[in-house]
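TICKET: design request
STATUS: open
ATTACHED STRUCTURE:
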């Protein structure tokens, strides 16, 4: 039984009609952090519209390869050998997610790992929106020393029992999410929801994954297989300067990205490169435009953009601008 650490929602407190009708609090443990790493365990706590727990589910997953940092997640090859493959649990996992907002701590990571696993088995995951509890804690201005799960848990008096175990991490997050959700409802805070799009662009012409190999990562891993790593060629066009509101992007402009995006970040960068733009990994006085969905996040790029007067647009506006990029002189 999960303890509630938040004041009760009284009848006098109107629940925002725009809030979702249900949530799936998710945590996945993985073989690593790269795009071709695999899920080795997953847990889901299903919550109703008010954040009350309905049920929970946990499974290990056989990645058919080295399990990666065992010293973190504790799942060895021997433990995972008899676990089901992702294709065997994909349907059950989907029923836990269907019709709900996926909630996770650093949700973009969990979502991307889940989306890639479903892409590998050619199934669209039934998730349309996600909510990051880091972003929600920022919206609520919680006085946290950092954005680690343990700090969020400590703020609400939630006790962690097995850190980096998917089931316990999901339980902890569910306990911390409920009071966060109720605080947001009392304050009329808009929930930081992001769209989740299946990785169809990753499956159209991808090679069949060769299990047991990946690009980079921990020692002992072989050459890549999931999506070929490649170094982008240098932008052939000169930088025409800053983006100006009301005018189109121009080939050669330097574009930087910051924060969570609905579209896979690498796919978004690919589209920018294909349009003749220069994707910058950092922000400087030469940057033409910063793309971010959270202009108040306080990240180093956002701070520098303010200092340098760099124009800022969100992902949706950038998507519109990509449709009509002016040719370089």
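STATUS: resolved
RESOLUTION: sequence designed for all positions
ATTACHED SEQUENCE:
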């Amino acid at each position: 039984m999960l303890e509630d650490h938040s004041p009760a929602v009284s009848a006098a407190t109107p629940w925002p009609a725009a809030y979702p009708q249900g949530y799936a609090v998710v945590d996945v443990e993985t073989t690593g952090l790269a795009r071709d790493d695999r899920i080795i365990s997953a847990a889901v706590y299903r919550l109703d519209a008010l954040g009350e727990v309905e049920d929970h589910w946990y499974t290990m997953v056989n990645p058919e390869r080295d399990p990666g940092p065992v010293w973190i997640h504790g799942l060895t090859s021997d433990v995972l050998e008899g676990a089901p493959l992702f294709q065997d649990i994909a349907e059950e996992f989907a029923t836990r997610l269907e019709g709900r907002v996926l909630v996770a701590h650093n949700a973009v990571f969990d979502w991307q790992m889940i989306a890639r696993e479903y892409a590998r088995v050619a199934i669209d995951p039934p998730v349309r929106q996600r909510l990051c509890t880091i972003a929600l804690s920022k919206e609520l201005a919680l006085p946290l020393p950092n954005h680690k799960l343990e700090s969020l848990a400590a703020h609400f008096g939630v006790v962690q029992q097995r850190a980096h175990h998917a089931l316990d991490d999901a339980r902890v997050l569910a306990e911390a999410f409920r009071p966060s959700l109720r605080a947001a409802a009392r304050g009329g805070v808009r929930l930081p929801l992001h769209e989740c799009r299946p990785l169809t662009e990753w499956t159209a012409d991808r090679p069949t994954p060769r299990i047991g190999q990946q690009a980079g990562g921990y020692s002992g891993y072989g050459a890549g297989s999931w999506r070929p790593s490649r170094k982008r060629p240098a932008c052939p066009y000169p930088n025409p300067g800053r983006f100006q509101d009301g005018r189109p992007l121009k080939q050669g402009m330097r574009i930087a990205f910051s924060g969570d995006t609905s579209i896979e970040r690498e796919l978004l960068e690919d589209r920018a490169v294909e349009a003749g733009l220069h994707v910058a990994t950092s922000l400087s006085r030469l940057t033409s435009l910063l793309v971010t969905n959270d202009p108040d996040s306080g990240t180093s790029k956002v701070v520098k953009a303010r200092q340098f007067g760099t124009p800022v647009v969100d992902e949706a506006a950038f998507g519109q601008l990509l449709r009509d990029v002016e040719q370089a002189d």
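CLOSING REMARK: The first helix runs from residue 70 to 73. The two ends are 66 Å apart (CA to CA).
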